[in-house]
Amino acid sequence: xxxxxxxxxxxxxxxxxxxxxxxxxxxxxxxxxxxxxxxxxxxxxxxxxxxxxxxxxxxxxxxxxxxxxxxxxxxxxxxxxxxxxxxxxxxxxxxxxxxxxxxxxxxxxxxxxxxxxxxxxxxxxxxxxxxxxxxxxxxxxxxxxxxxxxxxxxxxxxxxxxxxxxxxxxxxxxxxxxxxxxxxxxxxxxxxxxxxxxxx
Length: 200
Description:
Elements: E1 4-8, H1 14-24, E2 30-34, H2 40-51, E3 57-61, E4 65-67, H3 71-82, E5 88-95, E6 109-111, E7 118-122, H4 136-146, E8 150-160, H5 170-184, H6 186-199
Helix pairs in contact: 5-6
């Protein structure tokens, strides 16, 4: 069974996540990494690459989510089905506090980018996150897709306490990411920042 890999800076809801995992998936290993990176991307790269030394498949989880009885089992059921037809990138859970494409209920469907609050990924598909907080999910998904992998939203659901992992100052996070994106991904900078300034 794939382990659940969690990075944390000490979210007060981490104990609730741990309790839900012990209750609903007691046989699944929890790998909890106290953030050793200077940002979201670096912290998860360290934790995930360490986990991939032992496992070929993992579940990545935010430290501010709560599992339901079916979160883990439904995610892996959907992964097993999707593997028959696709090269899988991320397969992620839905939630109540996440980008709109991952909200609500319904069948499994493909998406261009995801927020892996609770998501399956394989060692083969993995690409390191860029060393930023905001936009790291989007850039990583784009890079994984460039290798030929597809991303999906699962039937799985987790409750997301919300904005505990990297903080609640969205404007600050947005601006802090721009210099790295401008320098390293000018193609995406032109889409995400230049058009924004024209609209303003």
